[in-house]
Design goal:
The chain is mostly beta strands and 125 residues long. The protein has no helices and six strands. The chain has strands at residues 2-10, 14-16, 21-29, 37-43, 58-71, 77-90.
């Protein structure tokens, strides 16, 4: 799966827990009719992938959805979801994407020389 948009925010790397778990969040704003601000978390050695990016850049982030279950002290089960990034890349300018190659000039085509009036096609129009 992937998320594409412009970087709105890049957080600093944070260390949580006593085991030295590292995480770093980035928020990407999608480019659609109703833009969404998607928070994506990079963990451990993947945190450093965000060092080369700045707010405002258009990026594509490859993600995995993670879910976990936790039971609190009252015995209630709670579920958490995380969007975890594992690769990020800059998006090329829109002008270079989706363009069709230019049509060749009419002079590049040789005119039909073997066509006679008697030949016709069966098209109804």
């Amino acid at each position: 799966m992937e998320v594409t948009g412009k970087i709105k925010m890049i957080d600093v790397t944070k260390e949580v827990g006593s085991a030295g778990f590292k995480k770093r969040d980035i928020v990407v704003t999608t480019d659609e009719q109703y833009p969404q601000h998607i928070s994506v978390q990079f963990v451990q050695d993947k945190c450093d992938l965000l060092n080369n990016y700045q707010v405002g850049e258009a990026v594509k982030i490859d993600i995995n959805l993670r879910g976990r279950e936790w039971t609190n002290q009252q015995g209630e089960t709670v579920y958490f979801n995380t969007i975890q990034g594992w690769r990020i890349g800059k998006v090329q300018a829109e002008a270079s994407q989706g363009q069709t190659p230019p049509m060749p000039a009419a002079q590049a085509f040789e005119p039909a020389s073997n066509f006679t009036e008697e030949e016709h096609d069966d098209l109804p129009f």
